[in-house]
Design goal:
The chain has 246 residues and is an alpha/beta fold. The protein has a five-stranded parallel beta sheet with strand order 2-1-3-4-5, sandwiched between helices. It is globular and about 50 Å long. This is SIS domain-containing protein. It holds the Pfam family SIS_2. It comes from Lentzea rhizosphaerae.
Length: 246
């Protein structure tokens, strides 16, 4: 028995179309962010990445990843992780003051760059992270959905996008679900779209570094021959500033 379509192909086409839109609409902003990150690398600064709830999946994508930047310091608090308590993680993200506590422990400098991942972009934690960093003179990159923020309750008074230096828009619809297309109830797309944006940034960064002669601190996979040896110098350089590397 043969069929004309593969099960799930409608969803696959939907995702491919969405990612094409994400790439096209963020082209200029990605160039701007790549310049910010390259400047931070040249200044031996840090790339701090933060999120809450399922946006912590994006933070994991940035940290200690084969081919990723070694100068990334993940910013988080156990209360923000759903696996440590789903209901309490939602409450923590909406609690004012937690961002200040987390950033105080991490440290922040004007030659660093803070990435805040939050698709809704309206809760206190992501918004206050951006506000604290902006007040410290540190550039803030918001990876968010402008359309989702527009329809979400403004719990922090402003949205993450309104506070950020540069906005990368993952174009996620309100509610995140995408399937079936006419009345979506499942298949959240925020993780896929946000990871795609981060790796689009990495591609631009590698190209710009090659053009300018900058040596990027990139991890090698620990599961390939020579990977551990290649990473040893990076670990020595960054481990005192990134405790999560221990």
């Amino acid at each position: 028995m043969t069929t004309d379509t593969v099960p799930g192909s409608d969803y696959g086409n939907l995702v491919r179309t969405h990612l094409t839109r994400v790439e096209q609409q963020n082209a200029a902003a990605l160039d701007d962010v790549a310049e910010l990150v390259l400047a931070a690398v040249q200044a031996d600064g840090m790339i701090l990445t933060a999120g809450a709830g399922h946006s912590l999946a994006a933070v994991a994508e940035t940290f200690y990843r084969a081919g990723g930047l070694a100068c990334v310091r993940p910013i988080y608090h156990p209360e923000l992780l759903p696996m440590h308590g789903a209901i309490s993680s939602t409450s923590a993200e909406r609690r004012s003051g937690l961002a200040s506590e987390v950033l105080r422990e991490a440290g922040l400098a004007p030659h660093d760059v803070l990435f805040v991942f939050s698709t809704s972009g309206v809760n206190h934690y992501p918004v206050e992270l951006a506000q604290e960093a902006a007040n410290a003179g540190c550039p803030v990159v918001a990876v968010t959905s402008v359309s989702a923020s527009a329809q979400a309750p403004r719990r922090a008074g402003v949205t993450l996008a309104e506070v950020a230096t540069v906005v990368l828009d993952n174009l996620v619809p309100p509610g995140d679900s995408t399937y079936p297309e006419q009345a979506p109830v499942t298949a959240a797309i925020s993780t896929v779209a946000t990871a795609f944006l981060w790796n689009l940034l990495m591609v631009r960064l590698v190209d710009k570094a090659a053009e300018t002669g900058v040596q990027l601190p990139l991890w090698r996979s620990a599961n390939v021959e020579g990977g551990d040896a290649a990473n040893a110098d990076l670990l020595r350089h960054y481990q005192t500033r990134i405790p999560q590397l221990g």
